[in-house]
C-alpha cells in the first residue's frame, strides 16, 4: 500500500503550476508539503472536492487541476463522476486515495470497503482514462504522463492511512479565505501573462 504523504510528495515534485484541491486526510499533509502552492482545501464539505476541482478546471483551462479525493468522500458524491465526464475538462487529473475507511470520522469502513472499483466507475461515467496504482515507483514513472494527458483522468491510489487528519491537525484557514487567496493569485498570474 502507498503512504499518502509519499504520494503527495511525489506529486508536489512534478506538479508545476497546477491548482490543487486536497480534501480530508490529504489536506494537513499537503499544507506542510506545499505551503505556498495554488490550492484550496475542501474540508468541511465532505464529497465536494471533485465538484470544486471541476469548477476550477473549467474556470482555469490554461492550468492543470489536481484533485486529491478520498474514497469515502467520492462515494458521497458519485454523481460528480458523470458530471465531470460530461463537462470533459482536458486539464483535470482526479486522484482518489483509497484506504477503505472514513479515516477522518473514526475509521469506519466505507460501503464496499476496498472492493469498490473507482476505475470501473470513472470509465463507466465517461472519463477519458482511469487507472489504479498501488506502487510508489510505478506512480513516479507514470506521473508526468498523468499530469499532461488529456483529461479527465482518474487515478485510484491504494493507500494506507494518513498520519494526520483535519481533526487531529486542525482545519487550517477557513475555506472562504483560501478561495479568495487563490482567486487573487490566479488573477495576478493572468494579468502577468497578459502583460508579457
Overview features:
196 residues; alpha/beta; Rossmann fold; five-stranded parallel beta sheet; two-stranded antiparallel ribbon; 16% strand
String of helices and strands? HEHHEHHEEEHEHEHH
Query: How would you state the average pLDDT, rounded?
Result: 85
CATH architect. name: 3-Layer(aba) Sandwich
Overall CATH class? Alpha Beta
- The geometry reads as globular
CA gyration radius, whole angstroms: 16 Å
The biggest sheet, with number of strands, parallel, antiparallel or mixed sense and barrel status, is: 5 strands, parallel
Numbering strands along the chain, what is their spatial order in the largest sheet?
A: 1-2-3-7-6
Distance between the termini: 45 Å
- What's the CATH H-level homologous superfamily? Thiamin diphosphate (ThDP)-binding fold, Pyr/PP domains
- What's the CATH topology label? Rossmann fold
Amino acid at each position: 500500500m502507498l503512504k499518502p504523504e509519499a504520494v503527495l510528495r511525489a506529486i508536489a515534485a512534478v506538479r508545476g503550476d497546477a491548482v490543487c484541491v486536497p480534501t480530508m486526510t490529504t489536506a494537513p499533509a499537503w499544507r506542510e508539503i506545499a505551503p505556498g502552492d495554488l490550492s484550496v482545501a475542501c474540508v468541511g464539505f465532505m464529497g465536494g472536492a471533485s465538484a470544486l476541482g471541476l469548477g476550477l478546471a473549467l474556470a482555469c483551462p490554461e492550468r492543470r487541476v489536481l484533485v486529491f479525493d478520498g474514497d469515502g468522500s467520492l462515494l458521497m458524491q458519485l454523481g460528480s463522476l458523470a458530471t465531470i465526464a460530461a463537462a470533459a475538462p482536458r486539464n483535470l487529473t482526479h486522484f482518489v486515495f483509497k484506504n477503505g475507511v472514513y479515516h477522518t470520522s473514526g475509521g469506519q469502513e466505507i460501503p464496499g470497503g476496498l472492493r469498490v472499483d473507482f476505475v470501473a466507475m470513472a470509465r463507466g461515467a465517461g472519463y477519458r482514462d482511469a487507472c489504479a496504482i498501488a506502487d510508489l515507483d510505478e506512480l513516479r514513472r507514470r506521473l508526468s504522463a498523468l499530469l499532461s494527458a488529456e483529461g479527465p483522468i482518474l487515478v485510484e491510489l491504494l493507500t494506507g492511512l494518513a498520519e494526520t487528519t483535519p481533526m487531529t491537525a486542525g482545519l487550517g484557514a477557513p475555506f472562504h479565505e483560501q478561495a479568495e487567496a487563490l482567486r487573487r493569485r490566479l488573477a495576478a498570474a493572468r494579468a502577468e501573462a497578459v502583460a508579457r
